[in-house]
Design goal:
The chain is mainly β. The chain has one domain. The strands form 4 sheets. It has a 7-stranded antiparallel sheet, covered by helices on one side. A 4-stranded antiparallel sheet has the order 3-2-14-13, with no helix packed on it. A hairpin with a 3-residue loop joins strand 5 and strand 6. The two termini are about 35 Å apart.
Length: about 240
């Protein structure tokens, strides 16, 4: 991939940083985020030899990052940034750092939406809050969105499966959170209780929406600055089954 440095004017200060370092994570493989074991919240991982500055994100200049050779114009909103890739897929990063607010995302429009009544709206497909990812289906919404988890590689998924789809459901396991479709089975991330780290799994999800099918794979939970709750994912539309 060719090297390029780019900047963007976005409303979220965190995404302004991510606009520069976006592809450093996308092209650098899986990453992990340190979790505070006493508070149950994520903290930035310290970099070797950098001490407190790395934990706070202070003292570092945004690096030059690799960008795809033939990308289109980024689609930006207050909390999301989507970059078209030359192969027809997209890479989206979400500022999901709020402890209370959800960020609603439409795969059809490729950007954040702001439904007045999310539970009754079909404007959105997936939503993000910290490590939680919900779909507009089941108990979370009336959009009939559902998800099927696959073991194939992202590029090998060329058509949606005929079955295996789940919607968000009531809290059957009594852990205090709804049973989100993206958390079913192994879920979209792996948590290491010994190291208190969270990293994205290789799982490819097929999202069935009112507008069609999309494949989606998470790349990271934090940005290149180490900020947690900045999920990055690659996704692309699929033909109908």
């Amino acid at each position: 991939m060719k090297q390029s440095t780019f900047h963007a004017r976005v409303s979220s200060p965190r995404l302004a940083w991510a606009a520069v370092s976006f592809w450093a994570v996308a092209c650098g493989g899986q990453d992990s985020t340190t979790l505070d074991s006493s508070l149950g919240q994520e903290t930035r991982p310290a970099q070797a030899g950098s001490g407190p500055a790395a934990e706070t994100g202070a003292g570092d200049e945004p690096p030059a990052v690799a960008a795809p050779p033939s990308t289109g114009t980024p689609i930006e909103s207050e909390h999301t940034r989507t970059v078209p890739e030359s192969d027809g897929s997209f890479a989206s990063q979400v500022d999901a750092t709020s402890m209370t607010d959800w960020v609603y995302f439409s795969l059809e429009s490729k950007t954040e939406v702001s439904p007045a009544q999310p539970e009754q709206s079909d404007e959105w497909d997936v939503a993000f809050q910290r490590s939680n990812v919900k779909v507009n289906g089941g108990i979370s919404g009336a959009g009939s969105v559902s998800v099927s988890a696959l073991s194939e590689a992202f590029d090998d998924v060329v058509a949606p499966p005929a079955d295996g789809y789940l919607e968000d459901a009531e809290d059957a396991d009594m852990d205090g959170s709804p049973d989100y479709a993206f958390a079913a089975g192994d879920g979209w991330y792996e948590y290491d209780p010994a190291a208190h780290t969270l990293s994205a799994r290789d799982t490819v999800f097929v999202v069935k929406t009112l507008g069609g099918y999309f494949k989606l794979q998470f790349s990271s939970y934090y940005d290149a600055a180490g900020t947690p709750a900045m999920p990055l994912f690659r996704w692309a539309p699929l033909g109908g089954s």
